[in-house]
């Protein structure tokens, strides 16, 4: 059974850090580009970051998180991570990872580019 599971969410204070994970089971994540998205209440799902397939040599970040968030992948663990630092209340939302199989060393911050999604995990930044 193919599964994509996010974990590591929770409550963090403004200025704090948190790492969320996107783990694949039932298939190899190596061939897939992976994107992280978030959705705040009443808002559209927005792209946060993405990493290319294979060795993840290409990454992209939304301007709102550039310099604060870092995406990485560990193919041995079949997992992609999003390290979030200097967090702000506006980072609050449900975080989703999406995947698309890709032979290109690039990725896109476009929701429609991704074919399969995890169930999402809540991240709340509040004092």
Task: Characterize this entry briefly.
With 127 residues, this protein is mainly β. Helices cover 0% and strands 48% of the residues. The chain is built from no helices and 11 strands.
Task: Report how far the terminal alpha carbons are from each other.
Answer: 39 Å
Mind summarizing the main beta sheet?
A: 7 strands, mixed
* Number of helical elements: 0
Shape: globular
Number of strand segments: 11
Strand content: over 45%
Q: Which stretches of 5+ consecutive residues score pLDDT under 50? A: none
Portion of residues within helices: under 10%
What's the alpha carbon Rg, rounded to whole Å?
13 Å
> What would you call the quaternary organization?
single chain
Q: Overall pLDDT, averaged?
A: 97
Secondary structural class: mainly beta
- What's the order of the H and E elements? EEEEEEEEEEE
Any key phrases for this structure?
four-stranded antiparallel beta sheet, mainly beta, 127 residues, 0% helix
What does this structure look like?
There is one protein chain. Helices cover 0% and strands 48% of the residues. By secondary structure, the chain is mainly β. The radius of gyration is 13 Å and the shape is globular.
């Amino acid at each position: 059974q193919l599964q994509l599971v996010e974990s590591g969410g929770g409550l963090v204070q403004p200025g704090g850090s948190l790492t969320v994970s996107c783990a694949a089971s039932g298939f190899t994540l190596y061939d897939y580009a992976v994107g992280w998205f978030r959705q705040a209440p009443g808002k559209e799902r927005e792209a946060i970051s993405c990493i290319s397939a294979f060795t993840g040599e290409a990454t992209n970040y939304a301007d709102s998180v550039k310099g604060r968030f870092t995406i990485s992948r560990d193919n041995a663990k079949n997992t992609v991570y999003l390290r979030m630092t200097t967090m702000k209340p506006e980072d609050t939302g449900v975080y989703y990872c999406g995947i698309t199989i890709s032979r290109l060393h690039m990725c896109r911050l476009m929701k429609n580019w991704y074919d399969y999604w995890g169930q999402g995990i809540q991240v709340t930044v509040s004092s």
